[in-house]
Amino acid sequence: MAALRENLRQDFARNRDPLTRAVLLVFRYGQWADRRRGAARLLLGLPHKVANLFLLRLGVGCDLPPQLACGPGLRLHHAGRGLAVHKRAVLGANVTLFHDVAIGQRDNTGEPTLEDDVVIGVGARVLGPVHLGQGAKVGANAVVLDDVPAGGSALGPRATIRPPAGAPAL
Question: Where in the sequence numbering do the catalytic residues fall?
């Protein structure tokens, strides 16, 4: 319960919008309930399933599965409208996701891993077993199919990888 409270405290510190906070509350409660065992998991999971269906999926159009490994301080713009994240993706701490973002598989080859402080722009797609380093940024509508180094940027319809300033070219 302490981990749930701490994650929510850090999430709420980065999100002021009440609807976004409601989305994060349902998501974090689902993570907490999913880690229970036996009858407690079933009993505690039922309110999450109802709230997840009506608030997240039907209300906002957001797919944040409770199995998702996600660090604290998740920032969702526009309450995560249109957001879809694969349940086996990994999100670090202080990740920022704009609306209409997809993070998932490509040809069943694996899921993305996002380190801390990653920012993903509106409409971006991060697909396959790619790794986004700490502080990486993904531009609006970019399609990321390759790794992005720490501090690097991914821009364009098929993302072009640029190393951080001062780093040698790839």
Answer: 99
Select from 68, 111, 112 the least CA-distant residue to 87.
68
* The pair of three-digit structure tokens given for residue 111, joined into one six-digit string: 């899921």
Over the stretch 43-89, which tens digit does the pLDDT of each residue have?
888 888 899 899 889 999 999 999 999 999 999 999 999 999 999 99
pTM: 0.88
Strand order of the β-sheet with 102-104 is: 84-85, 102-104, 125-127, 143-144
Structure tokens at 116: 């801390």
